[in-house]
Amino acid sequence: MDPLVYFRFALALALVLGLVLLVGWAARRFGLAPGGARRLRRGRRLGIVEVMPIDARRRLVLVRRDDKEHLLLLSTTRDLVVEAGIAAPPEDLVAATADDEPAAAAPALPHAPSAAVPPQEEPR
Predict the structure, then answer these.
(1) Between β-strands 68-74 and 59-65, what pairing exists: parallel, antiparallel or unpaired?
(2) Which secondary structure element, helix H or strand E, spans residue 51, and what is its range?
(3) Is 42 within 8 Å of 57 (Cβ atoms)?
(4) In the sheet that 79-87 helps form, which strands lie side by side, from edge to edge?
């Protein structure tokens, strides 16, 4: 094969990888990617603390205003305030937990023992 073909292949690969990185950056920047919530900046009164997608059409958004947090359920058809006026944690606690490892998963809830269902006989 001609070296020009290899050069064109490498150039096309670099272009495609660059486009993938650009789209990923844009998705995180504009809050389209899961876990892409932006941290609050100093001096701002309003900010998004966390975003959690529920399904393809709904997401939970935790919004902080001054020293209060509000939990919103956003969907394509309507928006709902789930809880308003949640006391925000102190700023030093928020900064400390953001730098630590992710919190451990909550323990699983105990399941009730399933009732034994007797096998049904087939009709004759």
Answers:
(1) antiparallel
(2) strand 46-53
(3) no
(4) 46-53, 59-65, 68-74, 79-87
Provide the token pair at 96: 């400390």
**Full-model pTM:** 0.44
10, two tokens: 């490498």
Taking only the tens of pLDDT, the chain with its 124 residues reads 788 999 999 999 999 999 999 998 888 777 676 554 555 556 778 888 889 999 989 999 999 988 899 999 999 999 989 988 888 887 655 555 555 544 444 444 444 444 444 455 555 5
How many whole angstroms separate alpha carbon 88 and alpha carbon 63? 10
Give the Cα separation of 68 and 110 in Å (integer): 33
